[in-house]
């Protein structure tokens, strides 16, 4: 058997073993607790039966996550440039960024519920707050840590501060920016689900995945709850896949991770 | 080239970083136009720092530097620096890297493309114009870096161990190429190196430096005629000079107190 087939087969085998372990756990539980871990087949049935609802609420969650992530990218990148521009702005702003990062975002939920009418915007706001920090920190780090020889070269070429950022710091920060974006893309759907859970509503529809979690868990519909978790998982995977694809598009031509030394 | 090569005077230069020990002490010399001066010495003798002082990248603690009777800061238009490890921007193609100094100085595109194409041809890399630095060998990257330095028609060329990371054959080729460029271009050059053979081959003067504190230990004059070629390395005069310079470097190392 060749290596390629093996590397395809290995995760499949692991998956089957995990399903088997799940089935055994279900079978081994006492009858009173068995409902807490429904059989894989029951979860599969719930996925199929509720696929319309799940797709719709996953789309709702994904919209909130995408909107919040986009806002975090735009505002976070702008703030990173401000922070990288001068030592003074770093000294002035960084402590307060740290404080924001330490604050449990959940406290903003009840405030947002009263402050913002639209559920989508509440969810996006919570996603924004969760995604913001890793984006700012990684982008700032990228903008600040530039090869000193390249900086000397720009100084000797009498480059303007604008050129130094536009032609040197921003491109060389791209890998760091994408590190932050990957972290943020992992957090965004989780943030949106937390947002749904704490500050969302169904607004006449089926609501987001967080809302489905409240609904199904309060009704003790365990297979549906598990199916909702799987839908959240798939949404998160799609977000990360989108970022990895974008990163490939931007960096593939020059970055060593993609180009290699192909001479 | 219309501009004349630079005249460089360093007078009683001292350099220390903050409260550290002096890095350079009492550096005095002058370089005539078209001099090719190698700075040779044990590590820690401050030869790279001296190069950065001449470039105006860091100010001297005391003493003065004159380049064609002006200070270095005013003279950056006419000065080019070649860094260790080529220092190319990895996200730009070879062509874009080469024209960057002109772009940063605000030269309009048609004029700068013309210069770019000319210098790329000079280092025989025209067919690599659209490649990215990662796709080049170490020697090719260094040639791009040289081409980039030449775009500004420098009067003063500062090279900080540019070929240190290359294998010996590539280094020999690039040394020959550098001297061939020198035949056509009007610049004064300072060249930092660890290699005695390279210093002798390239320069008409070698400043041998000693460390702790960094100072000029001896000056060696290299009377071999230009143009020099690969055949120069075979000559008895060259080999004699390498042996002498090696002995001088050894005495500089002995004079560098530990």
List keywords for this structure.
heterodimer; A: 263 residues; mainly alpha; MetI-like fold; 11 helices; 0% strand; B: 258 residues; alpha/beta; Rossmann fold; six-stranded mixed sheet; three-stranded antiparallel sheet; globular
Structural class by secondary-structure content of chain A: mainly alpha
Strand content of chain B: 15-25%
CATH topology of chain B: Rossmann fold
The percentage of residues in β strands of chain A lies in: under 5%
| Principal-axis shape of chain B | globular
Main sheet: strands, sense, barrel of chain B: 6 strands, mixed
Full CATH superfamily name of chain A:
MetI-like
Specify Rg of chain B, calculated over alpha carbons. 18 Å
What is the class of chain A in the CATH system? Mainly Alpha
CATH-scheme architecture of chain A: Orthogonal Bundle
List low-pLDDT spans of chain B: none
Mean pLDDT figure of chain B: 89
Query: Domains counted in the coordinates of chain B: how many?
Result: 1
Largest interface: A-B, 27 and 27 residues
Class by SSE composition of chain B: alpha/beta
Q: What does this 3D model show about the protein?
A:
The complex is a heterodimer of chains A (263) and B (258). By secondary structure, chain A is an all-alpha fold. Chain A has 11 helices and no strands. Chain A has a single domain (37-252), classed as MetI-like fold, CATH 1.10.3720. The mean pLDDT of chain A is 90. Chain B has one domain (8-255): Rossmann fold, CATH 3.40.50.300. Chain B is an alpha/beta fold. In chain B, strand 6 (156-160), helix 5 and strand 7 form a beta-alpha-beta unit. In chain B, 35% of the residues lie in helices and 22% in strands. Chain B contains 7 helices and 9 strands, in the order E-E-E-H-E-E-H-H-H-E-H-E-H-E-E-H. In chain B, helix 2 (94-104) packs parallel to helix 4. Chain B has a 6-stranded mixed β-sheet with strand order 5-6-7-3-8-9, with helices on both faces. The radius of gyration of chain B is 18 Å and the shape is globular. Chains A and B meet through helix 7 and helix 8 of A and strand 5 and helix 2 of B.
């Amino acid at each position: 058997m060749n290596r390629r087939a093996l590397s395809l087969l290995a995760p499949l085998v692991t998956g089957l073993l995990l399903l088997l372990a799940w089935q055994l756990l279900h079978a081994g539980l006492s009858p009173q607790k068995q409902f807490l871990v429904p059989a894989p087949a029951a979860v599969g049935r719930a996925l199929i039966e509720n696929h319309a609802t799940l797709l719709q609420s996953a789309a709702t969650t994904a919209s909130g996550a995408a909107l919040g992530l986009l806002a975090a990218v735009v505002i976070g990148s702008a703030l990173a440039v401000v922070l990288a521009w001068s030592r003074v702005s770093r000294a002035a702003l960084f402590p307060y960024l740290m404080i924001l990062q330490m604050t449990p975002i959940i406290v903003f939920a009840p405030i947002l519920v009263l402050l913002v009418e639209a559920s989508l915007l509440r969810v996006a706001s919570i996603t924004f707050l969760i995604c913001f920090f890793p984006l700012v920190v990684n982008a700032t780090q990228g903008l600040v840590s530039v090869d000193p020889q390249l900086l000397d070269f720009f100084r000797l070429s009498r480059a303007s501060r604008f050129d130094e950022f536009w032609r040197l710091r921003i491109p060389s920060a791209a890998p760091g920016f994408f590190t932050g974006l990957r972290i943020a893309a992992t957090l965004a759907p989780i943030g949106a689900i937390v947002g749904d859970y704490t500050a969302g509503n169904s607004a006449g529809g089926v609501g987001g995945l967080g809302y489905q979690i409240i609904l199904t868990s309060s009704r003790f519909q365990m297979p549906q709850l598990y199916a909702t978790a799987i839908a959240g998982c798939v949404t998160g995977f799609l977000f990360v896949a989108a970022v990895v694809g974008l990163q490939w598009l931007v960096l593939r031509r020059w970055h060593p991770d993609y180009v290699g030394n192909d001479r | 080239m219309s501009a004349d090569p630079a005249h460089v005077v360093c007078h009683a230069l001292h350099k220390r970083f903050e409260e550290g020990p002096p890095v350079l002490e009492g550096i005095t010399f002058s370089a005539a136009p078209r001099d090719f001066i190698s700075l040779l010495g044990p590590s820690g003798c401050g030869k790279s720092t001296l190069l950065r002082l001449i470039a105006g990248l860091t100010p001297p603690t005391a003493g003065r530097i004159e380049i064609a009777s002006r200070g270095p800061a005013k003279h950056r238009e006419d000065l080019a620096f070649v860094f260790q490890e080529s220092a190319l921007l990895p996200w730009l193609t070879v062509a874009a890297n080469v024209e960057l100094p002109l772009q940063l100085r605000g030269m309009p595109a048609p004029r700068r493309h013309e210069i770019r194409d000319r210098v790329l041809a000079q280092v025989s890399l025209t067919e690599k114009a659209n490649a990215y630095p990662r796709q080049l060998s170490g020697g090719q990257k260094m040639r791009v870096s040289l081409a980039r330095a030449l775009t500004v028609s420098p009067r003063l060329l500062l090279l900080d161990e540019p070929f240190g990371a290359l294998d010996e054959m590539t280094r020999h080729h690039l040394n020959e190429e550098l001297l061939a460029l020198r035949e056509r271009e009007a610049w004064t050059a300072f060249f930092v190196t660890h290699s005695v053979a390279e210093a002798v081959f390239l320069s008409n003067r070698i400043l041998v430096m000693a460390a702790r504190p960094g100072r000029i230990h001896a000056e060696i004059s290299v009377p071999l005629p230009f143009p020099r070629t690969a055949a120069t390395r075979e000559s008895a005069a060259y080999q004699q000079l390498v042996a002498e310079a090696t002995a001088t470097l050894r005495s500089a190392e002995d004079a560098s107190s530990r």
